[in-house]
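Attaching the record inline, Q. Sequence:
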Amino acid sequence: MSTAAFLGLGVMGGPMARHLAASGHSVTVYNRTPAKADAWVAANGGRSAATPRDAAAGAEAVLLCVGNDDDVRSVVLGPDGALAGMTPGTVLVDHTTASAHVAREIEIAAAAVGVSFVDAPVSGGQAGAENGVLTVMCGGTPEAFALAEPFITTYSRARRLLGPAGSGQLAKMVNQICIAGMVQGLSEGIAFAQCAGLDVESVIDVISKGAAGSWQMENRSATMARGEFEFGFAVEWMRKDLGICLDQARSTGARLPVTALVDQFYAAVEARGGTRWDTSSLIALLRD
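Structure, as predicted:
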């Protein structure tokens, strides 16, 4: 049995930590809201800690999944941060979708205390976390990845080292860029079919078997057609991710015209009160 700490018990982190515990690891958890950590322990065992530093003490791996760059810094750095409690030879794994810049910053801070680091954002949404079938995009050294992989395996079906620190975050940006364009295309296709008087379910059933098929089509087309948007990754989270993509593109000279446009569409969804709707809600803009 290995010892692990998990920091951040939101809709992704909570089930990821649960899979760690179910796989036989001894897990200590930390959450900014202590009641959530206590509830997790009541349901899954292990123990909760008052600070990230306390959670990390004695852990072979410290894993986190929080909100953004500043949240990563707040739980990793400083006198009460995870690195203050970690020992040389252990590994820190960040599953937050954040910037490549903060990944490189944390790697430097970790190396200064003899700790390995892997940036490891995930894809698969809440359902993937609940079912332990996430896809994990990793950045770091091969040695760091070797330390982290046995823990990551417990809640993923695919994981790959893609390059040095920051590479995982860059790969997650590619993921979000692709999803943004795909959801907009699916929204337009369904709205077009409805306006044309077609049976959307029948159309989707046949075209999903061909080149147009996608995870989004398979899992979101029916609810999109019904105008139901309570099933997954929230618009406000997608806008955070697309903002990271657009910032990175500006710094490297990459062009993201469709991504920038879809980000504006998501801003329009938010203006309609859809901040917490899932990302498939782009279709709502095509109905009025």
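The radius of gyration is 20 Å. Residues 5 and 135 are 21 Å apart (CA to CA).

More tomorrow.
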